[in-house]
Amino acid sequence: MAVTEATITFQGNPLTLVGNQAKVGDTAPDVEVLANDLSPVKLSSFRGKVCVICTVPSLDTPVCDIQTKKFNEQAASLGDDVVVLTISTDLPFAQTRWCGAANVENVQTLSDHHKVEFGTGFGILIKELRLLARTVFVVDKEGIIRYIEIVEELTNEPDYEAALSAAKETGK
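Given the sequence above, the corresponding structure tokens read:
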């Protein structure tokens, strides 16, 4: 398995990402994650829609909370051909609880806690923490990655405007 040294930091301290680093133009790995009801979900099940895939370390942290709520607010304006997913290593039960408390209804949360297939398949699993890096991927209707942002400092928010622009452009 590939290891990328110090491509992100947490409060200035370098972290190691493991997995096969995804690149723009690659076919998105067809990984399996869990829905909130514990059913398996393959990434390929979203083919035919543009996918904005956000990954966060944990929904129960302030920046992850803000990020998911902001994408939830924007999701409806992206149209029916776009789905917004937030993937974390949180347990599906915790994701369900968080979504209910936060009134998040336009973003689908998925869990990578069991096999961390998303993290290793996209090269964003943080070795030291067994959490996902903060990222945004935009995948087109055919499953090709069209946009990637790996947030360099884990405590920073992503570039919402750039991600939403990429999603709108990809959906044309």
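The mean pLDDT is 92. Try to locate this feature in the token string yourself.
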